[in-house]
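REQUEST ID: PR-0412
SUBMITTED BY: lab tech R.K.
PRIORITY: routine
TASK: structure prediction, single protein chain
INPUT:
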Amino acid sequence: MRSPDFSFFHGQSVVSVKTGRAYTLERMTALPDTQETLANLVRICNEPEIYNILFKNRCEGKPYASENGRLFLDWCSEGWKNHTHFVFAVRDEQGRHVGALDIKSVDIEVAEIGYWVSASHPGVMTPAVKTLCKIAKTAGFKSLSACTAIGNHRSQKVLLNNGFRQAPEAIFQNNQLSYFFKKKL
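STATUS: complete
OUTPUT:
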């Protein structure tokens, strides 16, 4: 099986469709490994919308802690190092981490993506996913998929605005009823 190649990728600009603010999409490993980065990650992951959809069950109702953030950052590094999964950071004009997107496998036929962004940065995820799709295609992926919790309308809109098609039936994933989306690149 052919493996994806990200050697061409050295960062990409994206612009919020709601605010016009400029952001940068880059490898998560480009973030400085500092307490400030970790604290910012923990703060964002505890924002109600992100926490309730992504982390409440995983954290058994307890707040997303520094240990969770450290494990995530280590997982990000391991993915790039071992070429098993690829996590990208969204950074604002001041270089602060405000969101993340990932390609969860090296299966070039169809790899699942995931993403989250701070509520204080509206309109950036739609162009970030669009850019991720272009990056994935250049890297060799043929199609991408995503799952969203049934009530996660904002995430579903991001996918639909980027040409993903929703499957007709819901599926059960990560202990919740979800919709499945797919896009041919």
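NOTES: The chain is about 30% helix and 30% strand.
REVIEWED BY: pending
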